Every structure is written in structure tokens, then in C-alpha cells.
Amino acid sequence: MLPISDILIRSISGYVFIIPVLILYFFIRKKSGRKQSIFHIIAVFVFCYYLFGILTVTGIGYTSTISFRPQISIIPFCGMISEPIDTILNLVLFVPLGFFLPLLYKKYQHIKNVILTGFLFSLSIEIVQMFGWGQQI
Prior knowledge:
Blueprint: H1 4-15, H2 18-31, H3 38-57, H4 78-82, H5 84-104, H6 111-130
């Protein structure tokens, strides 16, 4: 696990590049006549920072070598029982996703859409980690 100071530095430095993109996005939306509340704009910036934080904590993009190292378990969910703290941390890591999605986007007003998105996002991180990018948490 990365130290908290390293996580903050990496996520802030990566987030710096997305700020101009978000500003341009909101400028284009305003030009097209779509009104945005200041709360929505701030929430989108915080949500993007949260997404960068997830990618930083999982270590995606910071591994210099790519190697296929799948960890296949014959007993399903064995790691969840033997290392419950990792399971709890994984769950806590994705809790804000369940709050942000319905808050920001109408498409995610139904719980099944939020659960499906959270599952697919988590699965994609696990698959990327299986190919040697990032660290397994």
C-alpha cells in the first residue's frame, strides 16, 4: 500500500491535467444553453478527484513493467475470508461511487444501474491489475 502522502501527491498531480478539461466541458455546456448549478459543478470536480484517487490507490499507471500474473483461486472468495481487511477496504473504496452517481446523473437514479456500474468499474480495475498494472489491494 502506498503511503498517504504519496497518494495525495500523485492524485493531485494527475488531477491538475483534468481541471482544464472540466472547465472546457462546463464552458461548452454553458454555451449550448444548459444551466449548471454551482453545487453540480463542485460535485463533478470532487467526483473526478475521487476517481483519480481510486486509480492512485490501486496503483494503476505507476507500474513500469507489464506482466500477466493472474492469481486464480480454486476456492472462490478464500481471500475474502483469509484477509478480511482487504475486502473491507475494497468496499469502502467504492462507497462514494454509490453516492456520487445518483447525485450527479439522472441515469443512475435506479439502484441496479449504480450496482452494475460499480461492479463493472471494480471488475475493470481487477482485470487491469491482473495484467500487472497497479497493485492488488
